[in-house]
Write a structure and sequence with these properties.
The structure is a homodimer. The first copy, chain A, is of the alpha/beta class. The first copy, chain A, folds into three domains: about 45 residues, 434 Repressor (Amino-terminal Domain), CATH 1.10.260; about 140 residues, Response regulator (Rossmann fold, 3-Layer(aba) Sandwich); about 120 residues, Rossmann fold, CATH 3.40.50.2300. Helix content of chain A is about 45%, strand content about 15%. Chain A is built from 13 helices and twelve strands. Chain A has a six-stranded parallel beta sheet, sandwiched between helices. In chain A, strand 6, helix 9 and strand 7 form a beta-alpha-beta unit. In chain A, helix 8 packs parallel to helix 9. Chain A starts with 6 loop residues before the first helix and ends in an 18-residue tail after the last strand. Strand 2 of chain A pairs antiparallel with strand 2 of chain B. Chain A binds a DNA duplex through helix 2 and helix 4.
Chain lengths: ~350, ~350
DNA sequence: CTGAAAGCGCTTACAG
DNA sequence: CTGAAAGCGCTTACAG
């Protein structure tokens, strides 16, 4: 048994040229059936796998995708990104791509890392996450000329995300809070509060918009029933107390963290009020909180598909908005039974 | 400006040979100061970065480490692995290594992935996590001959982990629960319960051991004050009720998930009992639960150091056990003030 | 359908 | 201190 089989050593052993072996692996249709079978058996027996570096050097394709691991300041909400990464790794592998994971200090550091990776030809594309208002990264990646896809739409005061000159996938948060709110209206609620972080264009604003639409459509009061505060359980609890004092009977929250606090406020007052969070995090599941499930697996699959298409040279920009699904677990909500656990990893 | 600078194009431009440029990058001490400076300036100006694949092919080193993203069945406890991965990515990058992330169905799938990566020469080493009783992976990696380090000691009924023929880093869970329990004894508690998943060698058993040592040493009762149940908030709550009924005034839990449930049981009874969890997860922070902080950053740094040393040919096996740190936040604990938040990411 | 040739971009001994 | 040569292991046109 040689040190490690190569195309050369295998070919010599079989009495064929090494490009025949290469063809067996890369273009089997060009090889005669008999040869094909013979070579394949030998490849199998030797446990031969082409050396990645050699292939990369020759094809100028790394079959690797860059992914920045975001600092999870908040491990509760970081859950969505974690789940997204899992799904992405899964689908990437099936497509023959690997994930080059890295962490960065800040966005400049992040961009420098992409630049270095591109210069070293060690990645074919980038998966961006956690886009925010006036995010400089898409433009810089566009300038770099590296294919990329964003999980998260470009947030902007002026521009329409559907006009963006790059691919993105996002979850329609507004649709989620709207569905939740309409459901609460159907259940008979007339004063439905909303708790979220400050309202500049972004995730919180998007979710706020859904609540507002549903409440407006139903002719219910809105103004004094929205409270804006930083994302945190304590803040959510305080905000909830304010809203409950204003007569709210149900609270729609922009995150499970806020909902966690809101639920405590409700229990401070002896219960009987409904709280709904967002993201269906592990805490929500453990505490049987109502929440909204993001279709993370579908988002990851879609993002990967868009990116691979880009890498293959497609120039057209695509934008995909996916609908989330409310999950009601709280028995307080009349007539509702808890839905089966969604074991999204 | 050429398509993309290579050693060749840079050398031609500067009127030197390409190995001189290569020397400037890899062995600057062999180059005359004047040449060095001139070449460096050109490299900088051109934004030249060596193509990774070519270097890999030549040096037979990928400078990449494999890491399996574990399915996080439980996003609360999965937090430690997430934090570990962050730190690992950080330190790896500083050491010039990248992380090849992948997900796998099960351990067979995981092993096959390592084998393929080794065959394709696309990784230099493996970082193993989530070791368990009779884990088959270390032996298989040993047989593969690929350098690896394990975050988690080898759990076994018979063998001493310090005799293992491979490198591992782990957190001394027993030391954590022992410290916590002794502290509770100092605070005057005489009936201190313990809640954990079933006691086969592993993390739960290790943490149990610390509690038992402290309780035994203090001459307190143990037998009826330990309850074993699956890891979950509901289970923790139920177990806590059992122990509280047996007169426990403090509850040491093997996880924050169990502690979350136990805290609810305590509040069911009107409070006044102390609960301590483990891992200092985001939930514990949000809910001001007492917990134990794992030194994740140090574990990641140590693991990487051991692995790189292995990759460099060191044959000796090293085993490192790191002490965790209790964090008391609950004001119920007399005389204690909340410690400053540990913002481990 | 199969094989001889060229080359991807680097680094590593080895002469000079 | 600097340069000419060889080669890492592949794949891709191109002949035959």
């Amino acid at each position: 048994m040689p040190d490690r089989p190569t195309l050369e050593s295998l070919a010599a052993e079989l009495g064929v040229s090494r490009q025949t072996v290469s063809n067996v692996i890369n273009r089997p249709e060009r090889v005669a059936p008999a040869t094909l079978e013979r070579v394949r058996a030998a490849v199998e027996a030797a446990g031969y796998v082409p050396t990645l570096a050699a292939r990369q050097l020759r094809t100028a394709r790394s079959h690797a995708l860059a992914f920045r691991l975001m600092p999870t300041f908040d491990g509760i909400n970081g859950h969505i990104l974690d789940a997204f990464l899992h799904e992405l790794a899964d689908h990437a592998r099936r497509a023959g791509y690997s994930l080059a994971l890295f962490s960065a200090e800040d966005e400049d550091d992040e961009m420098e890392t992409y630049e270095r990776m591109v210069a070293a030809r060690s990645i074919d594309g980038v998966v961006l996450t956690s886009t925010h208002l006036d995010d400089p990264r898409p433009d810089r990646l566009l300038a770099l000329g590296i294919p990329f896809v964003s999980f998260g739409r470009p947030w902007s005061v002026t521009a329409d995300p559907f006009d963006a000159p790059f691919d993105w996938v996002d979850v329609d948060g507004a649709a989620g809070t709207e569905a939740v709110t309409r459901r609460l209206v159907e259940e008979g609620h007339r004063r439905i509060g909303y708790i979220s972080w400050p309202l500049e264009p972004g995730v919180g604003c998007d979710r706020w918009d859904g609540w507002r639409r549903a409440v407006d459509d139903s002719g219910l009061a809105t103004e004094e029933l929205a409270v804006y505060c930083p994302d945190g359980a304590d803040q959510g609890r305080q905000a909830a107390h304010t809203l409950l004092a204003r007569g709210a009977t149900a609270l729609v929250c922009a995150s499970d963290t806020l909902a966690l606090g809101a639920a405590r406020a409700v229990s401070d007052l002896g219960g009987g009020r409904v709280v709904v969070g967002f993201d269906n995090t592990p805490v929500a599941r453990e505490l049987s909180l109502n929440s909204v499930v993001q279709p993370v697996a579908e988002a990851a699959r879609t993002a990967l598909g868009l990116l691979l298409r880009r890498i293959d040279g497609d120039q057209e920009s695509r934008h995909v908005l996916l609908p989330p699904t409310p999950v009601f677990r709280d028995r307080t909500l009349s007539g509702l039974t808890a839905e089966p656990e969604h074991h999204q990893r």
